[in-house]
Design brief:
The chain has about 140 residues and is mainly alpha-helical. The protein has one domain. It contains five helices and no strands. Helix 1 packs antiparallel against helix 2 and helix 4 runs antiparallel to helix 5. This is Integral membrane protein.
């Protein structure tokens, strides 16, 4: 059972899926040629949308596993970093190709790599925490 704080987090995250769905509409219109976007932009828009959806689901699954397994601190709190990655990585994909006909990503691509590091931190924390919880009598 989730405590009230994690219920609020889960509810808020589920509401963000509405934004991910709207993002899918945006990606579709760009790929369909309804607004000007070059190949780089189309690829990055697809990748950003895919990462948003997958990471939101991964964050929810991670949170459920950690909370129902009584993972100890600080692992439990640090595992929430998966949700932070679900914001940073897609943002890096989308924002790094803003502009008219970019030929390569701009400096905002750093958000993607920062997000990847945060994702690793969250998953390491969850994985190690689950192992510790499983080995603790």
């Amino acid at each position: 059972m989730l405590d009230s704080a994690h219920q609020v987090i889960a509810g808020a995250v589920l509401l963000t899926v509405i934004g991910v769905a709207y993002g899918g509409r945006f990606v579709f219109t760009g790929v369909a040629g309804r607004f000007p976007a070059n190949g780089l932009q189309k690829s990055f828009f697809r990748a950003g949308h895919a990462h948003a959806g997958v990471l939101v689901l991964l964050g929810l699954v991670t949170m459920l596993l950690v909370e129902t397994s009584e993972v100890p601190e600080p692992f439990a709190t640090m595992s929430l970093a998966v949700f932070v990655a679900a914001i940073l990585m897609p943002t890096g994909f989308f924002v790094s190709v803003i502009g008219k006909d970019p030929v390569r990503p701009n400096r905002a691509i750093a958000l993607l790599w920062i997000g990847a590091g945060v994702l690793v931190l969250g998953l390491l924390s969850a994985g190690i925490g689950l192992i510790v919880a499983g080995l603790t009598p």
